[in-house]
Design a protein that fits this description.
The protein is built from 2 helices and no strands. With 93 residues, the chain is mainly α. The chain starts with a helix and ends in a 17-residue tail after the last helix.
Length: 93
């Protein structure tokens, strides 16, 4: 009976150790895959999604600001008239 409980105890310990090992292997594989994907992205000079979203928001703000400046510029500038120079014509006799 003592042998059976010792064997079961050893088996359960091995199962726990195996689960821990597989968990560590999973983390290691995830890390390796992530590094390779990042390397491929950098090699192809692609932009990550979060960087793209930040740049997109910046461009949208700039477009809105440009439109506002155009509107205020149109309101503030009036069409200018060309000034006529008063030149006296000389009569040549």
């Amino acid at each position: 009976m003592v042998n059976k409980t010792k064997i079961l105890s050893d088996l359960s310990k091995m199962a726990v150790d195996a689960a821990s090992t597989f968990s560590g292997i999973k983390k290691e594989v995830n890390t390796i895959v992530r590094l390779r994907i990042d390397k491929a992205i950098n090699k192809m000079k692609l932009v990550k999604r979060d960087e793209f979203e930040v740049l997109k928001k910046m461009v949208q703000k700039l477009v809105i600001e440009k439109d506002k400046l155009k509107k205020t510029n149109k309101k503030s500038t009036r069409p200018t008239r060309k000034k006529k120079k008063n030149r006296k014509k000389r009569k040549i006799d």
